[in-house]
C-alpha cells in the first residue's frame, strides 16, 4: 500500500505553508479574508463571534480599519463586498458546551445578521459523535486545514509567554497553547472546497455553487514552505445513514508507522488510539526500529477528558513501555519559562522527514472512525512518483520539524540541527538539549493504569465506530470473563 492508496485524493498545490500557533494563524486568515471576492466557508468544531483575529501591535494587516473581533470583521467584510457570502457550519453540540456565548452568536449572526452571512449547525453524525473538521475555504482558491478552531482561547504566540495579557476573554485568562495548520492553494484547495460543499450538503441539505471568480487571496507577507507539491487529503467519516465509513486517516497513520525507519515525531492532543498503539508497539520491539517521540498536553482540559482520554493514555503508554525493549519511546509535555505546561492541541506527525501530516484528527479511537475529520498529507515519495523534487520537499519537512522542536526546547533551529547531526537519533537529541527549568520539554509523568476503568473499557468517551450501548456492555462482560 502507498500513501496515495490511503488518501481520499491527491492533488497539486502551487503553494503550501505551515502555520504554527494561533497568533500567526488568525493574522494570516484575516489577511486572506480581506482579499476574498466570492465566498468564505468555515467548517468547524467550534466558532466564537468575539474571537480576536489581530491584536493592536501585530503587523501584516492591509486594512487597519477592519475590526479585530471576528463577528464584526465578517459584517465589515460583507458590507464592503456586496457579492461576498460567508457560510459558517459548526458542530451542533458545541453550542451546549458554551451556551451563553453561543446563543449570542446564533442571534447576531444567524437570525439578526447580514443576509450575506449564513450560520448553520451540523448535527449530521451518530449519537455522541462530533463534527471535528477545521476547514476554512476562500473563493475555492486557498484553503486552511489544521487543529485551530475560530475561538479566542486558541490564540497564542510561539513564545507562549507567561501571563501574556492578550490571552484573555474579558476577565477570563487562558493558558499557553500550541497549535498547527496548513494553508494551500491550487487543485488541492479546490478539493478541500469540494469536501466543504459536501459537508454543507450533508448537514444543511443545500448545494453550494462553485466559485466563478478570478482570485488570489494568498497573503503577500506569507512565504510558502512548499512549492509545486502533491497534497494528499485524508478523511474520517463514520458509517451513518447514507454516509459510507471512511478510515483514511487511520490508514495513513498505520502506513506511516509501518515504513518509518529513523523516527516518528508526533504532536497531538490525545494519545489513545488502540490500533496506532498496537502498530507502534510492534515497531518498538525491533532492535533497529525507529524512535517514537510523542508531545502531549500534561492533562485533559476538563474532568471528562481526564476520566476518558487521560485514562486511555495510561493504558497506551504502559503498553508501549512494556514493548519498548530498546529504549526508543518517550512522551513529553512542553513548558514555558515559568514552568507552566503548554496545552498541546496540534495534530502533527512527521516521519523520517519524508512524510508530514497535519489536520484535525486526534490519536484516539473516535478520530479514526467515529467523528468527522480531515487531514492533509505531504509525502516525499508520492511527490517523487509525480515527478517533483522530493529532496527539496524532504528538506522543507526537516525545516518544519526543526522549527517545532526548537520552539519546544527553547533553542535555536541551528543548535537543534547541529545536535541532531552529532547524535544521529531524535531521542538522543532531545535528551541532550532538554533543560531542567525554563522553556523545555519535560518528561510526562504517566502513572500505571488502574486495574479497571469502565469508561475506557466500554469506550463510552472514545468509541472506534458507532455502537449501541448494549453491545459495548456485552463486549466488556465477555472481556471480563475471558471469553472475548
Compact overview of the structure:
Helices cover 36% and strands 22% of the residues. With 484 residues, the chain is α+β, with helices and mostly antiparallel strands. The strands form three sheets. The protein has a 16-stranded mixed sheet that branches. It has a two-stranded antiparallel sheet with strand order 7-8. Strands 9-16 form a two-stranded parallel ribbon.
Task: Write a structural description.
It is a single chain. This protein is an alpha+beta fold and 484 residues long. It has two domains: 15-226, 2-Layer Sandwich (Endonuclease, Chain A); 249-366 and 378-443, Endonuclease, Chain A (2-Layer Sandwich), CATH 3.30.870. Helix content is 36%, strand content 22%. The protein has 16 helices and 20 strands. The chain has helices at 3-6, 22-34, 70-80, 94-97, 99-111, 186-204, 248-259, 274-284, 303-323, 365-369, 380-385, 390-409, 413-423, 426-433, 454-457, 469-480, and strands at 9-20, 39-44, 85-91, 117-122, 135-138, 142-146, 168-169, 172-173, 177-178, 180-185, 226-237, 246-247, 263-267, 291-295, 329-335, 343-344, 348-351, 355-359, 373-379, 440-443. It has a 16-stranded mixed sheet that branches. Helix 13 (413-423) crosses helix 14 (426-433). The protein is globular and about 65 Å long. 51% of the residues are buried.
Q: What value does the average pLDDT take?
A: 90
- Number of E-state strands: 20
CATH topology of the largest domain: Endonuclease, Chain A
CATH architectural group of the largest domain: 2-Layer Sandwich
Can you tell me the CATH superfamily of the largest domain? Answer: Endonuclease Chain A
For the largest beta-sheet, the strand count, sense and barrel status come to: 16 strands, mixed
Ends distance: 30 Å
Number of domains: 2
Assigned CATH class of the largest domain: Alpha Beta
Amino acid at each position: 500500500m502507498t500513501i496515495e492508496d490511503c488518501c481520499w485524493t491527491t492533488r497539486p498545490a502551487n503553494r503550501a505553508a505551515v502555520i504554527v500557533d494561533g497568533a500567526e494563524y488568525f493574522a494570516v486568515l484575516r489577511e486572506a479574508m480581506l482579499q476574498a471576492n466570492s465566498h468564505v466557508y468555515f467548517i468547524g468544531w467550534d466558532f466564537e463571534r468575539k474571537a480576536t483575529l489581530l491584536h493592536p501591535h501585530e503587523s501584516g494587516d492591509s486594512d487597519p480599519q477592519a475590526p479585530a473581533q471576528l463577528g464584526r470583521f465578517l459584517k465589515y467584510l460583507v458590507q464592503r463586498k456586496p457579492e461576498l457570502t460567508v457560510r459558517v457550519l459548526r458542530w451542533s453540540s458545541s453550542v451546549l458546551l458554551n451556551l451563553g456565548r453561543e446563543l449570542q452568536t446564533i442571534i447576531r449572526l444567524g437570525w439578526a445578521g447580514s443576509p450575506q452571512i449564513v450560520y448553520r449547525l451540523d448535527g449530521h453524525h451518530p449519537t455522541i459523535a462530533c463534527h471535528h473538521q477545521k476547514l476554512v475555504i476562500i473563493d475555492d482558491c486557498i484553503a486552511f486545514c489544521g487543529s485551530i478552531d475560530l475561538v479566542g482561547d486558541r490564540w497564542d504566540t510561539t513564545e507562549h509567554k507567561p501571563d501574556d495579557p492578550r490571552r484573555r476573554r474579558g476577565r477570563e485568562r487562558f493558558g499557553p497553547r500550541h497549535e498547527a495548520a496548513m494553508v494551500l492553494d491550487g487543485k488541492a484547495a479546490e478539493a478541500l472546497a469540494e469536501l466543504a460543499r459536501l459537508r454543507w450538503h450533508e448537514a444543511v441539505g443545500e448545494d453550494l455553487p462553485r466559485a466563478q471568480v478570478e482570485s488570489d487571496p494568498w497573503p503577500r507577507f506569507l512565504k510558502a514552505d512548499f512549492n509545486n507539491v502533491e497534497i494528499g487529503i485524508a478523511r474520517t467519516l463514520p458509517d451513518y445513514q447514507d454516509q459510507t465509513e471512511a478510515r483514511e486517516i487511520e490508514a495513513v497513520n498505520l502506513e506511516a508507522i509501518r515504513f518509518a525507519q529513523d523516527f516518528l515525531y508526533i504532536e497531538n492532543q490525545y494519545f489513545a488510539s488502540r490500533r496506532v498503539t498496537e502498530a507502534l508497539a510492534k515497531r518498538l520491539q525491533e532492535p533497529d526500529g525507529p524512535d517514537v517521540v510523542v508531545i502531549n498536553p500534561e492533562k485533559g482540559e476538563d474532568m471528562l477528558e481526564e476520566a476518558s482520554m487521560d485514562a486511555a493514555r495510561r493504558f497506551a503508554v504502559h503498553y508501549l513501555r512494556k514493548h519498548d525493549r530498546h529504549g526508543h519511546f518517550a512522551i513529553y509535555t512542553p513548558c514555558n519559562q515559568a514552568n507552566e505546561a503548554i496545552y498541546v492541541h496540534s495534530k502533527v506527525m512527521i516521519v523520517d522527514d519524508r512524510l508530514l501530516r497535519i489536520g484535525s484528527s486526534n490519536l484516539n479511537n473516535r478520530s479514526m472512525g467515529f467523528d468527522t475529520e480531515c487531514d492533509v498529507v505531504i509525502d516525499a515519495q508520492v511527490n517523487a512518483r509525480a515527478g517533483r523534487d522530493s529532496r527539496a520537499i524532504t528538506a522543507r519537512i526537516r525545516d518544519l520539524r526543526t522549527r517545532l522542536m526548537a520552539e519546544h526546547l527553547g533553542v535555536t533551529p541551528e543548535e537543534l540541527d547541529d545536535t541532531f547531526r552529532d547524535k544521529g537519533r531524535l531521542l538522543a537529541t532531545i535528551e541532550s538539549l532538554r533543560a531542567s527549568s525554563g522553556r523545555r520539554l519535560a518528561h510526562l509523568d504517566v502513572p500505571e493504569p488502574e486495574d479497571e476503568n469502565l469508561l475506557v473499557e466500554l469506550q463510552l468517551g472514545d468509541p472506534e465506530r458507532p455502537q449501541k450501548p448494549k453491545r459495548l456492555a456485552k463486549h466488556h462482560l465477555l472481556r471480563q470473563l475471558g471469553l472475548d
